[in-house]
Automatic annotation (TrEMBL):
GO terms for cellular component: membrane. It is a multi-pass membrane protein. This is ABC-2 type transporter transmembrane domain-containing protein. GO terms for molecular function: ABC-type transporter activity. The keyword Nucleotide-binding does not apply. It comes from Weissella cibaria.
Length: 254
């Protein structure tokens, strides 16, 4: 069997394609990313905003039994965050805008201004992880808003101040949260399929080469024939298993 160079080359091609399939599906097996780098910017530098930074950075994981862990970085300003994202340093960032504390105090007045936060998502670093980061940061801002509204209401009750219908409405969603996506990957939605197709075609090429190599063996010993019957089904079975596993993972991802 191994005296036929074409046969040996075809086996090598098939095995290499199988290894490429394994490498291609490795990212889909890590369902819970660890130590996701996320930045937070406090542009207000008030007691209220600093308390929020302390509260949020104490949250280092999100999820159930297999949580995603977060690695926070406090950054001086938004410009520094954007530069870092250009270098693919962060998956996302949360910016507490200037005037946050002052705007919070205005919520119970006749001329309220909602305090602002901005969620920045770096989609190009990893689109799947970025979507998870966006959900996590949005959930965090909602919790901060609820806690802030309860705090304002408690202070008003302590001072025996009436809560107008307008003030109550403002406190339902006290924080104005905007989301900005940078380095978008919308024009690469089919990238996974584009990379998968040539790999699978390469595996098919290995199959064809094996078939022709088998036909080219005109004189084989019993030992060589036995090796053919043992090795080739193993290789082809491995390739078919990898194909099925890859298709399942792609279905789960998309």
């Amino acid at each position: 069997m191994f005296k036929n160079k074409f046969h040996v080359i075809s086996l090598i091609v098939a095995l290499v394609m199988g290894l490429l399939l394994i490498v291609a599906q490795i990212p889909s097996t890590h369902t819970a990313p660890k130590d996701l780098p996320i930045a937070i910017v406090d542009a207000d530098q008030s007691d209220a905003s600093q308390a929020i930074v302390k509260q949020l950075t104490s949250v280092t994981s999100t999820g159930g039994k297999n949580p995603t862990t977060i690695k926070w970085s406090v950054v001086k300003n938004k410009t520094a965050v954007m530069r870092a994202m250009d270098k693919q340093k962060y998956y996302g960032a949360l910016v507490i805008k200037a005037g946050f504390a002052q705007d919070t105090m205005s919520l119970t007045t006749t001329n309220p201004t909602h305090p602002e936060m901005q969620v920045i998502i770096n989609q190009a670093k990893n689109a799947t992880a970025a979507a998870g980061v966006q959900n996590a940061l949005t959930m965090m801002t909602n919790k901060v808003g609820s806690a802030m509204a309860n705090q304002v209401l408690r202070k008003m009750q302590a001072l025996n101040l009436p809560v107008s219908a307008e003030a109550a409405q403002n406190l339902l969603q006290p924080i104005a949260v905007t989301t900005k996506i940078v380095h978008t990957t919308t024009n690469k939605a089919t990238a996974s399929a584009a990379f998968f197709q040539p790999i699978w075609m390469g595996a098919l090429l290995g199959t064809v080469m094996l078939t022709y190599a088998q036909k080219g063996l005109s004189h084989v010993t019993k030992k060589q024939a036995w090796l053919n019957k043992v090795i080739e089904p193993v290789v082809m079975g491995l390739l078919h298993w990898l194909r099925d596993s890859q298709q399942l993972n792609l279905h789960m991802l998309f």
